[in-house]
């Protein structure tokens, strides 16, 4: 085990309601995404960001930044902010995906899953290699467009327009989106008053409303109840049936097994396994268990319990606040 491995977070979750569920096999079409020797690099300034990335096992190196003379002149006298380092978050990943595939991405925290999705969506430029996409990736585009200070109602319109729907089409889909997200009258309140689960569900509902060619889901499903998961699963099947492709990043291995036909396993920025869902999921589960023989250390278990308790408390407070706001909004409308 390397030093980085010892620090890793192993959020391997099993959702009882997903166990035994399987994604439907569909006929696969032509390739719709080719990722070829993809490298993605972040530039970070200062020691803290560097340490954080090193702890997660990413390849980090300090670089000398050569500023042009005039820039140095303009910056003279400014506070020194620390050394510049490069975090090599995705390192030489290649794979091809076909229309109709549902691809899960697994890996411990910091293994590069989200960075890779962002690169596929065109939000992170590759340092080296290329991404060829036929079709329009959704979700991340919607994430970028939404505004927390505006109501869910306004955001549904903005997100819908960002996906290429007309205002009339967004109007027609409005009720369906609200119902799918399960947010009720909260839709008339600013999104910043939502709990993180409500926000994630609304983003997922908007992003999947336009039958996207490539639907990307980064943990959104983990935030819903069983009924929301069921709705999400049928939405994923719908996208695949229309020859679309689904990417799902989740720490819940049972959700991946229930919703995907193929899995990519990433570790320290590299693709270590790519294959049929059960083959990769079994290998990944074995790896995670091998990293913590005899289960978690008591300290780690206590740390997780403390974190969960704090999160539950914060969520409860947030829900109470949102409920009060909702009441206020309902009174104002009456
Ligand atoms: N904006 C950023 N600036 C600098 N480094 C980053 C940034 N985002 C991610 N990283 C680093 O890149 C590496 C990969 O992170 P990424 O978030 O892609 O992993 P992940 O597998 O999605 O993790 P998680 O499961 O925790 O969401 C990590 O070392 C992380 O610290």
UniProtKB/TrEMBL annotation:
The keyword Transport applies. Keywords: ATP-binding, Nucleotide-binding, Transport. InterPro entries: AAA+_ATPase (IPR003593), ABC_transporter-like_ATP-bd (IPR003439), ABC_transpr_TagH-like (IPR015860), Bact_Polysacc_Export_ATP-bd (IPR050683), P-loop_NTPase (IPR027417). CDD domains: ABC_KpsT_Wzt. Residues 308-334 have a biased composition (Basic and acidic residues). Residues 292-334 are annotated as: Disordered. SMART domains: AAA (SM00382). This is ABC transporter ATP-binding protein. It comes from Promicromonospora kroppenstedtii.
């Amino acid at each position: 085990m390397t030093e980085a491995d010892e620090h890793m977070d192993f959020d391997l979750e099993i959702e009882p309601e997903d166990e035994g569920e399987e994604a439907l096999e569909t006929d696969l079409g032509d390739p719709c995404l080719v990722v070829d020797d993809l490298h993605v690099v972040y530039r970070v300034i200062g020691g803290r960001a560097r340490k954080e990335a090193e702890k997660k096992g990413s390849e980090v190196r300090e670089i000398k930044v050569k500023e042009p003379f005039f820039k140095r002149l303009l910056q003279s006298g400014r506070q020194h902010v620390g050394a510049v380092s490069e975090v090599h978050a995705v390192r030489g990943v290649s794979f091809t995906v076909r229309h109709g595939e549902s691809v899960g991405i697994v890996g411990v925290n910091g293994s590069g899953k989200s960075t890779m999705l962002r690169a596929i969506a065109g939000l992170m430029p590759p340092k080296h290699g290329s991404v060829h996409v036929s079709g329009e990736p959704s979700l991340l585009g919607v994430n970028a467009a939404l505004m927390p200070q505006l109501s869910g109602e306004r955001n549904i319109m903005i997100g819908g327009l960002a996906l290429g729907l007309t205002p009339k089409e967004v109007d027609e889909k409005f009720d369906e989106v609200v119902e799918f997200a399960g947010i009720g009258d909260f839709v008339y309140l600013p999104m910043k008053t939502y709990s993180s689960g409500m926000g994630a569900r609304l983003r997922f509902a908007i992003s999947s409303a336009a039958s996207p060619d490539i639907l990307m889901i980064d943990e959104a499903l983990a935030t819903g109840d069983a009924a929301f998961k069921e709705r999400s699963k049928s939405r994923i099947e719908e996208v695949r049936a229309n020859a679309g492709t689904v990417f799902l990043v989740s720490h819940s291995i049972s959700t991946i097994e229930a919703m995907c036909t193929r899995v990519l396993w990433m570790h320290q920025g590299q693709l270590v396994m790519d294959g049929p869902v059960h083959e990769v999921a079994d290998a990944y589960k074995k790896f995670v268990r091998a990293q913590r023989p005899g289960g978690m250390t008591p300290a780690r278990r206590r740390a997780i319990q403390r974190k969960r308790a704090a999160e539950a408390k914060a969520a409860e407070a947030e829900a109470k606040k949102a409920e009060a706001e909702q009441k206020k909004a309902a009174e104002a409308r009456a």
